[in-house]
Amino acid sequence: MVTRAVEQQSHGGPWTAFLPLVRGLVWAMIGFAVGAALTAVVRIAGGRSAWTFGLSFSVGYVFALLGWLLGVGMWERWGREWFGRPTVEEGPTDWRRYLAFTTDHKVIGIQYLATFVVVFLLAGLLAMLIRIQYLTPGGTVLDNATYNRVMSMHGILMIAVAVAIFVGSFGNYLLPIMIGARDVAFPRLNALSYWLVPPVAILLFVSQAFGGWDSGWTAYAPLSVRNAPGQILFCLAIITFGLSSIVGGLNFLVTIITMRAHGMTWGRLPIFVWSIFATSWIALLFTQFFAAAMLMVLLDRIAGTSFFAASNGGSAILYQHVFWFYSHPAVYIFIMPALGVTLEVLSHFSRKPLFAYRWAVGGFLGILAMSALVWVHHMFVTGVPYKLEAPFLITTEIISIPTGLIFLTALGTIWQGRLWLRVPMLFALAEVFNFLIGGITGIFLADVPTDAMLHNSYWVVAHFHYTIMGGEIFALMAAIYYWFPKMTGRMYSERVGRLHFALMFIAFNGTFLPMFWAGVHGMNRRIATYVPSLQGVNDLISAMGFLLGISFLFFVANMAYSLVRGRKAVANPWGARTLEWQTSSPPPVENFLVPPVVTGHPYDYGVPGAAPYAAFAPAGGSGEASS
């Protein structure tokens, strides 16, 4: 039995919005105490001390995580049903809903977006600290150990953003609307996937109180088995984050397969939906390998196993195989939704049909099929058998073919288009430019001889940032500016948005292009110091890096001001065809007042005789075509 609570927005002050969070933290502390106590009882019964950090904290965290989830709202909206009691499905409808365990996919999308934008900005501040360190060759700001912890934290925070910000935010908010559904297939699982995320952030930051970790975001064994206790919190955080990713991927797949609007065949899906579809398969199939790697590190630390101890028959190379079997497919979790957004924006702002739509879909599916066949190119210098080098060199080059199809789709779409150079379009065009550089420079790292020379140099840093930040983060900015009117009902300042773009584009390229030169001339990554001959190029990189950081101040100011004072947005300010633009801004609770019927193609701009993308049939009416 499910009951819907009557909204009582007027009851209680603003402080009541934080009650679920407070309750979740209290229940988490109670859960941790219970888990630690149970561990103590078992250890005492075995004649050992009551507390050992690794085991006691790990078991306590499992109970704490359950307490957090139940306390923050899962008990009221889900758990009560397990015991035959009525649940409360609806929470507040005002701003307080963003701090609650809600099942509305649009609210969850905003929760993801706000959370990971904050994480992104914090990780950016750590990057600024790293560049301050490099203002002198000796790096007088941070000692070696502190630098390693800062670099490691920066890396994992940015990786977390890259993994979740597109799928979690825009995937959640827009995908159901774009396919004409009222919500995702499993709304309560969707809420669960988000509320698993705050404990991840808490663990990563609290780990610094226990010495942090100095093994980078890759957490290579055997260092990760032997370093400070903070590494244990890192492992628990990654396992939790992996569970969130798996649950989210499953939910999106079921939603896309089973909940498309009438008439929305596979050939009429928006390209962004296709990108989420391929990404969700990777998240579902491969994330458990990263979690397994973290679990093995954890067991080596707390349970006496020896997966990675060579003296006891283990192998550190085993860790790299398991880790990269997920972590290279994860690169496509980063970039495929970004490419999907880019193609969406390019078509709508070029006023042209998406060039080679089917080939672009084939490109996404080709990346999905090939993503598990390239991981060893990260290990060319580890002493892998010689007979593995050539096959993985070839597969790494082959996967550039489906990626190239998507890139050519972008170029073909803007060719001879009527380009409307608004802020989303500027960022999408920049994404194409940056991703091209990232792709070209990656060829050198796919080739065994050049990889041996460039490995662990700043060439890798530059290539990675051109691929991920230049590709994904520029596309993220395009997505935020493009869908901001839909999500908020407000328009942003075009002038400030253009200033943000100009500063970010110039500063980004000024920061990372010189890194290729620095890498070729001996600048090592992940090192707190460098040789004095490289100070000039590092000064240039730092200056551009600080400008890059400043550019985001304009972004934050624009978004914050526009959210409160921006002029009201119409339902479809861009004149786009896809379904999210055929409903109000922001959309109603169930997205459409009447279910849409898809009758055309989402990108038939300027096509003579093209059918409208969707029609709506009001009660008593014969149907009304969308623009």
How would you sum up this structure, described in words?
This protein is an all-alpha fold and 627 residues long. The chain has 18 helices and five strands. Strand 4 (614-616) and strand 5 form a beta hairpin. Residues 1-11 and 619-627 have low confidence and may be disordered.
Mean pLDDT: 93
Helix count from the secondary structure assignment = 18
Could you give the distance between the termini?
Answer: 41 Å
String of helices and strands: EHHEHHHHHHHHHHHHHHHHEEE
Q: Biggest β-sheet: count, sense, barrel?
A: 3 strands, antiparallel
CATH topology of the largest domain: Cytochrome C Oxidase, Chain A
Q: Which range does the strand content fall in?
A: under 5%
Q: Give the % helix.
A: 55-70%
| Rg over C-alpha atoms, rounded to the nearest angstrom | 25 Å
CATH architecture of the largest domain: Up-down Bundle
CATH fourth-tier homologous superfamily of the largest domain: Cytochrome c oxidase-like, subunit I domain
Kindly report the spatial arrangement of strands forming the biggest sheet.
3-4-5
Describe the structure concisely.
Helix content is 63%, strand content 2%.
Features:
627 residues; disordered C terminus; mainly alpha; three-stranded antiparallel beta sheet
Task: Spell out the blueprint of helices and strands.
Elements: E1 2-3, H1 19-45, H2 53-77, E2 87-88, H3 105-133, H4 144-178, H5 187-195, H6 197-206, H7 223-226, H8 230-258, H9 271-302, H10 316-350, H11 357-370, H12 386-398, H13 400-414, H14 423-446, H15 448-454, H16 458-488, H17 494-520, H18 535-565, E3 596-598, E4 614-616, E5 624-625
Parallel strand pairs: 1-2
Antiparallel strand pairs: 3-4, 4-5
Helix pairs in contact: 1-2, 2-5, 3-4, 3-5, 3-18, 4-8, 4-9, 4-10, 4-16, 5-8, 6-8, 8-9, 9-10, 9-11, 10-13, 10-14, 10-16, 11-13, 14-16, 14-17, 16-17, 17-18
